[in-house]
Protein: Pyrimidine/purine nucleoside phosphorylase
Amino acid sequence: MDQFTNITIDKKANVYFEGKVTSRTVLFEDGTRKTLGIMQPGEYEFAAELKEEMEIVAGHLDYKLSGQDWQTIEGNGVFYVPANESFQVKAYSVVDYCCSYISE
Structure:
């Protein structure tokens, strides 16, 4: 999906790691929440409260889920983070991403 319709966007940015990772929250009519963001090159660790679908729209990164080996995405791809887990990211270029929060 390249476009979203019938949404509300929070104007205030979510800012992490001294501004090296930023996103905006997108809210859908059905209560679904996503964030659209940018990661600058660097190494980061995130914690997920809900299950997350991390869609990489553009960029080059390695990611590591808890208890797993490093994986690479170059260009675009998707990975899933279980609820209440953390994950690590090594961004080698600017990474454009969309994070979907999945309540099960």
Observations:
- The two ends are 22 Å apart (CA to CA).
- The CA atoms of residues 8 and 27 lie 5 Å apart.
